[in-house]
Amino acid sequence: MTAPAPLLTPPKNPKPRNAGGEGRGGFFSLAARRDQLIALVIGVLCMIGAQVLETFTLGPQRAALVQENEASLQSLAVTFPRLTLGGFRGLLSTALWIQAEDDKENRRWFDLETKYDMIASLQPYFTSVYIFHAWNQAYNLSAQWHDEDTKYKWVLDGLAYLYGGERYIPNNPDLALEEANMYYLKLGGSFERIFYRAHIRSDLSRLHELEDVKLKEGNAKDALQHVKDFATRPEFHIALLPDPSQRSKALGYGISITDPDLFKYRTDGRRVGEPMDFPFGVSPFYFAYVSFNRSLSFGTASTTGERVIDSEPGMSLRLWCRDDLTYSQDVMNAAFNQNSPDITGNAATLSAKVAEVRLCYRNVQTIAPKAVELLQLHLLKWPPDKNVHTKSINEAKAYQKVGVAESKLFDALVQWQTDGRKMTDKVKQMLLDALPAYDDAITATQYWVDQAFPLREGQAPPEERGDIAQYIDGLKTRKDGIEAMLKADPGAKPDMSFLEAEVVER
């Protein structure tokens, strides 16, 4: 009899649970759920991290950026790319650099300035951006123009570009150094320096014109606005003077400067701490002096060592003296030399020029001793510079003596003009008083030349000696001219061509 079959018969070839079918689907379902859970946890953590980053880092930054945007559209041009372009900013800025160079080569000036602004917006924290483009504007682009007013505007554009960089990179020694060099080397020392120095001096005396609705838009107004923006920066300690006639409430009829340390040797009878007025403007070397000091206070610049920069404030003041002497000798020649353009026909013009020149001589007597002091302090820190800056010290001392002599001659000629160009007893005495002052100036200048470029037995004189010695000849010509005026017949017309001689380097 056959046994009954079991109710449940195990399969002959049982499959393992991980071999396929339902077992396989079940396993991968569990793995997928696990991966999903991990991804969910990571996502939640990322969201929490983003919220923390937003709260403690990006939130304040965004609030600050929004505040900047509300302050000006210019800030929006900077912050928008930073918030939206991310890593693409570098690629875009590279393309703009290339296009800017192409615009420069093809003289597309408006497009070029636009691209410079865009590059600064994309790379606001790169010092080299501001230095490179400012240099390009002040030096390379200004040279493309023949008109000196347009050249001047491009130089000021370069300075404005540097100051724009300080909004994002404050207290940067490299930017401050480039600003100082722009005043010192470009406005004060370039081929067009005589024009630039006179222009910025004039602009500082007429900043009130910006409030005149009749002032037309254009390069002249833009340049004047730049000068006002620079002068009213807090580091320059400048206040705008009111209208001396009190007919207008506008400010900008010249400037006043408060700097007790700079004016410690003042000769105008006022206290050291009181503001010193410059109703006819001031030399760009004042701005260089302040900017070099700023660079030193911010740290060590990457392009120039401290040893060099430390001497520049004193050197700036030395050149300020030379600038004022150059300007005053030109005015004296124009006022009293028959061979030069006559400015004596208009009494108001002559009166203003007389006041301006006398302030130039005041400046020299105030600034020259401070230049000497700063250069002597520099040599205490850097004794190896003795051979270089002892020359500059002697030069500043010579300028002080030249200023005394020139002021005496100028006052005598003003009296001569007042007396109807007659050799009155008062005029003669004033001219006689000027003679020993010129002796002192010749002696001081000769000492400077002999120490700077000594004559050595058996050797040819240094070439530079002749360049400076010509100003000794100019001082001697002044003295000879004074003596000729004193010896001339009372009714004779004196030869005033001796005023054409230059007594200082331009």
How many E strands? 3
Specify the number of helices: 16
Helix content: 55-70%
What structural category arises from helix and sheet content?
Answer: mainly alpha
Strand content: under 5%
CA radius of gyration = 36 Å
Biggest beta-sheet profile:
3 strands, antiparallel
Shape: elongated
Provide the succession of SSEs.
HHHHHHHHHEEEHHHHHHH
Which consecutive residue ranges, at least 5 long each, have pLDDT under 50?
A: 17-24
First and last CA, distance: 139 Å
Instruction: Please list the strands of the largest sheet in the order they lie side by side.
Output: 1-2-3
Whole-number average pLDDT?
A: 86
Give the oligomeric state: single chain
Structural account:
The structure is a single chain. A 3-stranded antiparallel sheet has the order 1-2-3, with no helix packed on it. Helix 2 packs across helix 4 (109-122), helix 6 (148-165) runs antiparallel to helix 7 (173-187) and helix 14 (386-418) runs antiparallel to helix 15 (425-452). It starts with 20 loop residues before the first helix and ends in a 19-residue tail after the last helix. 66% of the residues lie in helices and 3% in strands. The chain is built from 16 helices and 3 strands. Residues 17-24 have low confidence and may be disordered. The chain is mostly helical and 506 residues long. The chain has helices at 21-71, 73-84, 88-105, 109-122, 127-141, 148-165, 173-187, 193-205, 219-231, 284-298, 306-309, 312-336, 347-381, 386-418, 425-452, 463-487; strands spanning 238-242, 251-257, 276-278. A hairpin with an 8-residue loop joins strand 1 (238-242) and strand 2.
